[in-house]
C-alpha cells in the first residue's frame, strides 16, 4: 500500500486499513469455525456408539470468531471420563469434581450393581466403563489443525 502525503492519501490509507480490518475479522471467524468443525468431526468419529444419541448431540456453538465444540447429552461426561475402576485410565486432565469409585454402594472390589430390566435378576454387576476421551481427541485434533488452517485462510 502506498501513501501520498496529502489529505486524500491519508483518507485512502484509512479506508484501506478499515477494509483490511473487516477482511481480517471475516478470516478469523472462518479460521475459528474451520478448527471447531475439525474438532466436532473428530469427536463424532471416535465417540463410542450405543444408541447414537451421544454422537448426534455433538455440535458447534458460537460465532464472531469464537466457537466451541459442545455435547448436549446427560451421559456425555461418563463416556468421556469413564466410570468406576475401569475409568481410571483417562489420559487427560479430569475436572476437579470428578471422582471414581465413590458412594455407599461400591463393593470392596470396586464393582456395584445397577437396575437392568433386560436381565432375569433385575440387576447387573459392573466395574464401570473405560474412558473414551472423545472430547480430548477433539481438542488434540483442533490443536493439530491450527497450522494448516492458518495457512489455508491467511495464505
UniProtKB/TrEMBL annotation:
One Pfam family recorded for the sequence? HK97-gp10_like
Task: Name the InterPro entries for this protein.
Answer: HK97-gp10_tail
What is the protein name given in its UniProt record? Answer: HK97 gp10 family phage protein
Amino acid at each position: 500500500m502506498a501513501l501520498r502525503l496529502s489529505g486524500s492519501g491519508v483518507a485512502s490509507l484509512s479506508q484501506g486499513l478499515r477494509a483490511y480490518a473487516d477482511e481480517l475479522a471475516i478470516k478469523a471467524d472462518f479460521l475459528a469455525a474451520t478448527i471447531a468443525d475439525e474438532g466436532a468431526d473428530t469427536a463424532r468419529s471416535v465417540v463410542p456408539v450405543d444408541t447414537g444419541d451421544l454422537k448426534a448431540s455433538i455440535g458447534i456453538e458460537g460465532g464472531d470468531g469464537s466457537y466451541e465444540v459442545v455435547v448436549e447429552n446427560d451421559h456425555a461426561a461418563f463416556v468421556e471420563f469413564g466410570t468406576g475402576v475401569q475409568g481410571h485410565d483417562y489420559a487427560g486432565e479430569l475436572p476437579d469434581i470428578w471422582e471414581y469409585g465413590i458412594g455407599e454402594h461400591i463393593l470392596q472390589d470396586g464393582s456395584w450393581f445397577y437396575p437392568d430390566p433386560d436381565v432375569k435378576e433385575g440387576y447387573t454387576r459392573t466395574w464401570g466403563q473405560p474412558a473414551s476421551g472423545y472430547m480430548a481427541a477433539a481438542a488434540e485434533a483442533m490443536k493439530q489443525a491450527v497450522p494448516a488452517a492458518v495457512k489455508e485462510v491467511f495464505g
